[in-house]
Write a structure and sequence with these properties.
The chain is mainly β. Helix content is 9%, strand content 49%. It has 5 helices and 27 strands. It has helices at 5-18, 26-29, 76-82, 161-166, 331-343; strands at 53-66, 69-74, 89-91, 106-110, 117-126, 129-133, 138-155, 172-175, 178-197, 201-222, 226-231, 235-239, 241-248, 264-277, 286-300, 304-311, 315-316, 350-352, 355-358, 362-372, 375-384, 397-405, 409-418, 422-431, 434-438, 448-450, 453-461.
Length: 484
């Protein structure tokens, strides 16, 4: 039974988004010595940085995860070693149960459960960025980054491979609305954060305004519930069909090497606040924060295609040559073929030359508690905010991160619940100005079910010495309002 056809077009789009390129990189964000890197999680986070200035030379994070399919009994290094040979990639669905499995084989399989499915991938490269504090309590920062992200959440469980495969011919499957989006963009931002004394500690407000340049982007959505019915001969009856999709075509259907072109632009904002509760000793007892991240969108208006397939009558989609679809370089031809198959005209589906994609907007709450000098525990909650279907959905995250933090060394171990489904263990280590870690340690070690991986690292520069931040503007020793 052919379980691909129309929905495989959608899944192929998700997979290629994921192939573009660590989701939250908690080890880079929550440490007391994170400096300018912490502003990505909360633009007011510089309140507790002990540095007068902090410079990020380069930092990067790569993340991919899903709960639709998996590779059996492997880890990242085993996968990288053996995936170079395509003969090692084995579809476990069609492999006999008693087959002798070679150590080099990578057996791909699908999850067989009733959970909603998701697939997400992201890349975050922070380039030269810096922050500086002034004596009057103000903090200024500059941020530069190259980012890529793609995702789809709440994919109906009845689109799972085994569910469709077990559905008899001529039995209708209802697929509720689904959407996916992804893009590659750069951002340049300016951060401003004033800090004030309170009776119990300090209070800081922060905002980061960013200019965005969009390079590649695409989306697909099915706004109505689709009814699909499979028939022998690899044909599919589609009812109530409405499919909207768009993509940039500057690197599709071309024989030249891929080029970097700015096809869109936009603006975004991060806003946040942080409050500390301090005791008699140095540092804080509690650090509490709240933020709204990536509030904005990019409008793609150059080298773009906007399509809509709206077929009010029942129609047989027939067989689509999915085995000929290899990636973004074939996207224009494939859109024309889909338009011809459904509307009878290869150009009929094209309805415009521009579209917008929203950034992975989220709300976040953070709480940090010092239970012993240099020993902390952090709780971070990130909730996806998606205002329209043409937007990248951020993964929902809840993480608990105990850590040791000092000037020259920091180490943390995280427990992370992703999308309220999958529990991950993360770690990070910082030696002076060098950081490395992962929010998915299990993908690095141990041969187990492999659904994705995560890694981040960074190189920084900041002063050798740390000390109190003077708020008095050079007019004498600063005194907290509760000190006498």
């Amino acid at each position: 039974m052919n379980t691909q056809l129309l929905f495989s077009c959608f899944l192929a789009f998700i997979i290629n988004i994921s192939n573009l390129f660590a989701q939250e990189q908690l080890g880079l964000r929550v440490d007391n010595f994170s400096g300018v890197n912490s502003l990505v999680l909360n633009p007011a986070a510089n309140i507790t940085s002990p540095f007068r200035f902090d410079i990020n030379l380069a930092s990067a994070g790569f993340f991919i995860d899903n709960n639709y399919g998996h590779i059996r009994k492997t880890h990242l290094f085993h996968f990288l070693k053996n995936s170079r040979d395509s003969d090692n990639l084995i579809n476990a669905v069609y492999a006999p149960n008693d087959i002798a499995v070679e150590d080099s084989w990578l057996l791909f399989d699908y999850f067989d459960n009733e959970k909603s499915k998701y697939a997400s991938a992201s890349m975050h490269l922070m380039g030269p960025s810096f922050s500086i504090k002034l004596n009057n309590g103000y903090s200024f920062s500059f941020i530069s980054a190259l980012r890529a992200a793609g995702s789809s959440h709440k994919i109906p469980s009845n689109t799972g491979f085994y569910h469709i495969d077990r559905t008899p011919f001529e039995e209708t499957i209802d697929i509720t609305p689904v959407d996916a989006a992804g893009m590659v963009w750069s951002e340049f931002g300016i951060n401003f954060s004033p800090t004030f004394f309170t009776y119990s500690g300090k209070l800081s407000f922060g905002i980061t305004a960013k200019y965005l340049s969009g390079y590649e982007g695409g989306f697909v959505e099915t706004p109505r519930t689709l009814q699909i019915t499979q028939f022998p001969g690899d044909s599919l009856l589609l009812e109530n069909g409405l499919i909207n999709f768009g993509f940039t075509d500057s690197n599709t259907n071309t024989t030249t090497d891929p080029t970097v072109r700015r096809n869109g632009q936009g603006f975004s904002f991060d806003i946040g606040a942080v409050m500390t509760i301090e005791g008699d000793e140095d540092g804080y007892i509690w650090r509490l924060g709240a933020s709204i991240l990536d509030l904005g969108e990019i409008n793609f208006s150059k080298n773009t295609q906007l399509h809509q397939i709206d077929q009010p009558n029942d129609f047989n989609l027939g067989t689509l040559p999915l085995d000929q679809y290899s990636g973004f370089e074939d996207l224009t031809d494939y859109a024309s073929l889909l338009s011809f198959q459904t509307l009878g005209d290869s150009l009929a589906s094209r309805v415009g030359n521009s579209f917008s994609i929203g950034l992975p907007t989220a709300a976040s709450l953070q709480a940090d508690y010092q239970f012993y000098p240099n020993f902390y525990v952090n709780a971070t909650w990130i909730q996806r905010l998606k205002f329209n279907t043409q937007a990248i959905g951020r993964d929902n995250i809840f993480g608990i991160t105990p850590r040791y933090s000092s000037r020259w060394i920091s180490a943390s171990l995280s427990l992370i619940l992703r999308n309220y489904q999958q529990l991950r263990t993360g770690f990070s280590v910082r030696l002076a100005w060098f950081i490395i870690g992962s929010d998915n340690l299990g993908s690095w070690i141990g041969r187990s079910t492999f659904t994705g991986t995560d890694v981040f690292f960074g190189v920084k520069m900041n002063p050798f010495r740390t000390g109190p931040w003077n708020f008095n503007g050079g007019k004498g020793k600063g005194i907290k309002c509760y000190d006498f």
